[in-house]
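Researcher: Hi, I'm a grad student and pretty new to this. My advisor asked me to get structures for two proteins we've been looking at. I'm not sure of the right format, so I'll just paste the first sequence and hope you can take it from there.
Model: That works fine. Here's the first sequence with its structure tokens right after it:
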Amino acid sequence: MKVHLLAIFICVALAQACNVPNDAAVRFLNAHTLSPTTSGGACTANTVGIFRGSLDLSGNTRYVLQFDVESTYQAIVTTVPPDTVAGQSRNEFIGKRIIFTYSSTPSLPFMPEQLDMYWVVQPNSSTGSWLQLNMLAPLARQMLLDQVQVGQSVELLVQFQVFGELASGQKTNTNKVSYPIRVFKSGFTTCRTPGDVRAPTGPCGDFGGQDGSFVGCCKDITPTPAGCPT
């Protein structure tokens, strides 16, 4: 089931890549960045996967990814002829909360953060299921804004896991995902030319800063990107 979950907001050494162990029936697989343009109010994921990222806090304070998801729970249908008395929805996974944990080099005093959610994954699904996440929960985002100064950087390690239950009531959870992000501040502040605005070069038409996307003003780019005033 396709579900948007934007604005909710690894294990491995910091220098290593995204770690997604397949130790659960409902599991996250590859991570993908999102296109900078939208169509019909939604943006699409890039085909090529990504295993680590970077974020310039002077441009944006969100880091958004889309994760492929699969469920190996089988669709079980109970039939008492001629009626179906229990459909395959019994093995739907219903995610109810997501827990983020963070660590960094240099070390910062992050706290675990739990956020409520409602997210359904159909049983026996291997294609077409995904989840979009902002990897920086509110307290972690504020910690980085307060502690990372212009010209500095930290190697951030993000872990998250979704907890919930099957529609039949059995408690369960997804695998745990680990993803490293280099976080820094370039020092960009604002656009000073009258009529100019910050360039929407980031994911889904957001400001730049994620994974090397341009941080600056519309008049600094040729050709002018989509979303800039003409």
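Researcher: Oh nice, that was easy. Here's the second one.
Model: And its structure:
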Amino acid sequence: MTGVKTNERPGTRAVLKHSGVSAYKAREVLDLIRGKDYQRASEILEYCDREVATVIGKVLHSAAANAFHNDGIEAEELFVSACFADEGATLKRWRPRARGRATRIRKRTCHVTVIVSRMSEEELNRRRAHVAAEQADRRARRVAGARRQGRASAAAKGETSEAPAVEAAVEQALAGDEDEQADGDHDAAGDEDEQADGDHDAAGDEETSD
């Protein structure tokens, strides 16, 4: 019994045709992100020193944008279920050599495909619980530090009651949590704008290659 065909694999895909890089070089980078979640795959491609990683990153962002706009799936719930590079047309060129001779140059191209799918409910629940635990632990450490700071300031001032200083320090720490959350929302909005710009660049590259 044969497996699932390449064009029948489930998930949301993005395809880049006639990329000016060999399939061998693209596959070496694709092997790094296969099976990773969207955020982790984006980080790997961002810090990868291969030039083709920039092109593959645009294809990955395009696939995530397709999943959001077409299927309504958030980028945080996606992972790279499949990614592959097929060989494209080979351009034949000639290079002049000594004694009037010439040698052939083969300029390889490839077709890059990235397929993203939604993670299972168990995996999503595990990730959400992990994030919630980290936030609760960070909040508890900040409140405990604020209480120690309030007691120290009250002792330095010679106050008989530490409660007002401790309450003020805790309120300031909680306000800092709200500001940090607002900054995170702002950064998330900026990431969405960068993702839209990346999708636009990927579309421009496809038009140029055509």
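Researcher: Is there anything I should tell my advisor about the second?
Model: You could mention this: Helices lie at 23-33, 38-46, 52-71, 121-157, 163-209.
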